[in-house]
């Protein structure tokens, strides 16, 4: 039952979130759509922060009884926020851009009875790009905000409070940085803002992997006393040439028994 309600909540939030972003963007001044469109996204982090605080408070109050009745408290408190959101939703006015487009369609007697069919028939490419782009972003979001809370308590056997604290810190940073990058997207464009983080993350992983391979190669290699500096430069950073004398002793002399013998391969 909880999973079904969670899925219903996800579909509802997806629809309302998209509408909130559209209203914010359509009402934004020219050149500031990214900044205005970032504010509805802050609501996600604010809700996560409030929810995490509520769960942490409920866990502290209920103690060992959290899994029996303590987890109900945050859900019951969320009814207040749902009522506030419903009031805002019912009293939100449409943007002038939308009203102008609607009046234009009514004037030309244009009616779309099945907008979903039009979307799938004529806008499949941008739709698929948006869907899979959101998979990459929203997947990581739920990984760090939902899965981690269970992982730290079951696999790592770390107190639940550690995971909740980390999520709260991340939420606060999100609230601060989302408008910053929204304004940044107005300057360099949406695509560059969206893909720059992916390129930086990929290059960082590549450098880390190369460094690990070099370190592993350096640890596993060994230097032979008969090796030349060119042979060992790639595996050893500080090479000191061998002082072993591999030439035979002069005629008429005897080699010292304690002299270092050269390996057969020299």
Account of the protein in words:
The chain is mainly alpha-helical. The chain has helices at residues 2-26, 33-62, 66-70, 72-91, 96-107, 115-122, 124-154, 160-188, 190-220, 229-232. The longest helix is centred in the middle third of the chain and has 31 residues, at 124-154.
Let me know the number of strands. 0
What fraction strand? under 5%
Mean pLDDT reading: 74
Counting helices, strands and paired strands, the structural category is mainly alpha
User: What letter string, H or E per element, gives the SSE order?
Assistant: HHHHHHHHHH
Quaternary structure state of the chains depicted: single chain
Tally of separate helices: 10
Q: What percentage of residues falls in helices of 4 or more residues?
A: over 70%
| N-to-C span | 76 Å
Low-confidence region ranges: 219-244, 257-266
Largest sheet: none
Report Rg.
32 Å
Name the shape in a single word.
globular
